[in-house]
Specification:
Strand content of chain A: 15-25%
Helix content of chain B: 10-25%
Number of strands of chain A: 5
CATH superfamily of the largest domain in chain B: Nucleotide-binding domain of ferredoxin-NADP reductase (FNR) module
Structural class of chain B: alpha/beta
Largest sheet of chain B: 6 strands, antiparallel
Number of helices of chain A: 4
Number of strands of chain B: 12
Distance between the termini of chain B: 23 Å
CATH topology of chain A: Beta-Lactamase
Number of domains of chain B: 2
CATH architecture of chain A: 2-Layer Sandwich
Order of helices and strands of chain A: HEEHHEEEH
Oligomer: heterodimer
Shape of chain A: globular
Radius of gyration of chain B: 19 Å
CATH class of chain A: Alpha Beta
Largest sheet of chain A: 5 strands, antiparallel
CATH topology of the largest domain in chain B: Rossmann fold
Shape of chain B: globular
Order of helices and strands of chain B: EEEEEHEEHEHEEHEHE
């Protein structure tokens, strides 16, 4: 995808994104961005109509990073953020901090997102926050 | 400490704001580039007054208020005074202590002759503040030296005085550099971020202005139209230690000397002040 500048693409990032993508049938897209908005890797299920165009995806990444950065301002009281979920009519967006980066996931809209989240978290290797 | 009133707060971002402070009584004297110590009682400290020094962005000829551009320190823990300041309202009281600091403009060389060298100011983040004071002061006194203000920030909405400094450069173009010789440029260190999508200027850290590019002179030399030497340029730097170190790393390689390590004859070409 021609989004933010793709930089170092490591096998670890590919495997992580792929594992999350196939962790549950409802996952549509997985991307890993660093805190400078560089898209380290992204992948998505084939044959899906994109909901956002390229500019809108950049905006969406920006909003996710902004929200993540601001959430960290309260971590001295609340602890480290583990997961954020935003349920829209047409999609559910999940962001999960992973090491120094942010894992961005979109899924089909579902009322059973607890199951989806459980599957996604099970696919992410522990990294010791 | 003395009493004052916060007369104006302009929030530029959630964590960046311009504050104006009007002291009670006669307006105090100070020099462009100095800092003022501000103090507020802090609830989490049982209302003990916490003091911090902030560079003054206004200039000594402005006798109406002190102006500051201040970042709300958030991580790893919220700054006690900046948190209190970002909860202030216009009209609230604040305390202050007299201006101090040595990051002031050199008007004379060690031999007593006037210092006519170009003034290059390099400010990282809110380290721009003393140079806003410099620029307005030198403008108001009709100084004829060439002044270049370089500002580094991560995001375009952190270019806190872009409009004012751009206006000063436009005035320089309109009036002619023989009357007012001023240039302003900024560098954005995260150009790939969506918020910075409109930026077409210099990218990278502010000290990149000093670095020659393959087959080309540095952006600063391109801007001023000549080679930068100890004889034609005096540098002033303010910002986080990383900005200071990055700039000194370049200037030291070119045998520029700081005030702290001045030569036996008292000469030097770099003054700096670091935050934190």
């Amino acid at each position: 995808m021609g989004l933010a500048k793709e930089v170092v693409t490591t096998q670890d990032n590919e495997k992580l994104c792929s594992d999350v993508l196939f962790s549950h049938e409802s996952v549509r897209f997985v991307g890993l961005v660093n805190n400078k908005s560089d898209l380290l890797f992204s992948t998505q299920k084939p044959d899906l109509d994109p909901l956002l165009d390229e500019d809108e995806i950049r905006i969406s990444i920006n909003y996710s990073l902004e929200r993540w950065r601001k959430a960290q301002n309260l971590s001295f009281r609340l602890g480290t953020e583990k997961l954020t979920l935003t349920e829209y009519e047409h999609v559910t967006l999940i962001s999960i901090p992973y090491q120094e980066n942010l894992l961005l996931i979109s899924t089909q809209p579902t009322v059973h997102y607890h199951d989806v989240v459980q599957s996604i978290i099970a696919a992410i290797p522990p990294w010791g926050i | 400490m003395e009493n004052a009133t916060v007369s104006y707060i302009q929030l530029l971002r959630e964590d960046l704001a311009i504050f104006r402070v009007v002291p009670e009584g006669p307006f105090p004297e100070y020099k462009a580039g100095q800092f003022l110590t501000l103090g507020l009682p802090v609830k989490s400290e049982n209302n003990r007054v916490i003091n911090r020094a902030y560079s003054i962005a206004s200039h000594p000829e402005n006798k109406k208020y002190f102006e500051f551009v201040i970042r709300w320190v958030r991580k790893p823990y919220p700054g006690r005074l900046t948190t209190a300041m970002f909860n202030l309202k216009e009209g609230d009281p604040i305390q202050w202590r007299k201006a101090n600091g040595t990051l002031t403009i050199n008007d004379k060389l060690p031999n007593g002759e006037p210092d006519k060298r170009r003034i290059v100011c390099i400010g990282g983040g809110t380290g721009l503040a003393p140079f806003v004071s410099f620029a307005q002061h030198l403008h108001d006194i009709g100084d004829k030296r060439e002044i270049v203000v370089l500002h580094g920030a991560s995001y375009v909405d952190e270019l806190s005085y872009r409009e004012r400094l751009t206006d000063l450069e436009l005035e320089s173009i309109d009036r002619g550099t023989d009357k007012w010789n001023f240039k302003y440029r900024a560098a954005i260190s995260r150009p790939q971020e969506w918020l910075n999508r409109s930026w077409t200027g210099q990218v990278g850290r502010v000290e990149q202005f000093l670095r020659a590019r393959p087959g080309r002179v540095s952006p600063l030399e391109e801007l001023v139209g000549e080679k930068i030497t100890q004889d034609n340029t005096m540098f002033y730097i303010c910002g986080w230690q990383g900005t200071i170190d990055g700039t000194l790393d370049f200037l030291g390689n070119k045998e520029f000397v700081t005030e702290r390590n001045k030569r036996e004859d008292g000469s030097y070409e770099v003054k700096f002040e670091s935050y934190g």
